[in-house]
Write a structure and sequence with these properties.
Layout lengths: L4 E4 L5 E2 L4 E2 L3 H7 L6 E3 L5 E3 L5 E6 L9 E3 L11 E3 L3 E10 L9 H11 L1
Antiparallel strand pairs: 1-6, 2-9, 3-8, 4-5, 6-9, 7-8
Length: 119
């Protein structure tokens, strides 16, 4: 079974319907910091502006890709990177990530550049 991950600053055991999961471990780690902005550059380097202490979970039950999840309809990331849950899923805590690493944090200049590209 391949792992599905969810990152959150919250201590939870179940993931609500409509939540986001991913097969990408590092992306879930970034999401655990609750960032309003996530950027993946052409080299695959992920940076964000989240500040929360993070927790990393795996989905602790089988997922039927045809029934339990769907691609995130508003994702700005590559195809298949973000999925939305269609039912409540059990989670298992696998790592306390803590504060985000400074090298993973977007600078104000990088954020301004990203915002220019959105407009």
């Amino acid at each position: 079974m391949e792992n599905w991950y969810h990152g959150s600053p919250a201590d939870i055991t179940n993931l609500r319907t409509g939540s986001t999961i991913t097969k990408h471990h590092y992306l879930a780690c970034m999401f655990s910091h609750k960032p309003p902005i996530v950027s993946i550059n052409d080299d695959g380097i992920i940076k964000h502006n989240g500040r929360e202490n993070g927790l990393l979970y795996i989905v602790d039950e089988p997922i039927d890709i045809n029934k339990d999840i769907e691609p995130h309809p508003r994702s700005t990331m590559g195809e298949g990177m973000e999925w939305i849950t269609k039912r409540t899923l059990k989670l298992k805590l696998i790592e306390k990530i803590g504060h985000p690493k400074i090298e993973d944090i977007l600078t104000e200049e990088e954020i301004n550049e990203l915002m220019k590209c959105r407009n």
